[in-house]
Recover the amino acids of this structure.
């Protein structure tokens, strides 16, 4: 069975995370995280650990919700102070789904990718062998 023949399967688990982490360590899969004024995003690109197709996933992880109406916005109405810009945190990991952009056999209509999802650490120590998945 070739990579193109791999049927779609909605699957996840520690085995896929371990294989993806190995791909990160071997630089077959890359993770970049950016915090720009409180908007935290991630990009994961390289080889899918299940179907071996190229993937390029761009994820928005957090977006600040600001109180822009002098105490009359959403946060004061909920009883919380508005979050401050620049207080976002980069999460320790990101959840990624195959974004190869290809139609696999048995995939639901209009669904691209092989169906695998896996968690990758965002810390750079994953490339040197010190991260956990």
């Amino acid at each position: 069975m070739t990579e193109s023949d791999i049927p779609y399967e909605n699957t996840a688990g520690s085995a896929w995370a371990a294989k993806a982490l190995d791909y990160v360590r071997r630089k077959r899969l890359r993770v970049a995280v950016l915090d720009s004024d409180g908007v935290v995003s991630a990009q994961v690109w390289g080889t899918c650990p299940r179907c071996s197709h190229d993937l390029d996933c761009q994820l928005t992880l957090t977006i600040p919700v600001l109180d822009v109406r002098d105490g009359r916005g959403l946060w004061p109405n909920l009883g919380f102070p508005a979050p401050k810009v620049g207080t976002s945190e980069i999460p320790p990991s990101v959840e990624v789904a195959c974004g190869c952009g290809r139609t696999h056999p048995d995939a639901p209509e209009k669904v691209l990718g092989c169906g695998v999802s896996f968690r990758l650490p965002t810390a750079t120590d994953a490339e040197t062998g010190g991260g956990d998945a």
In short: Residues 38 and 88 are 5 Å apart (CA to CA).
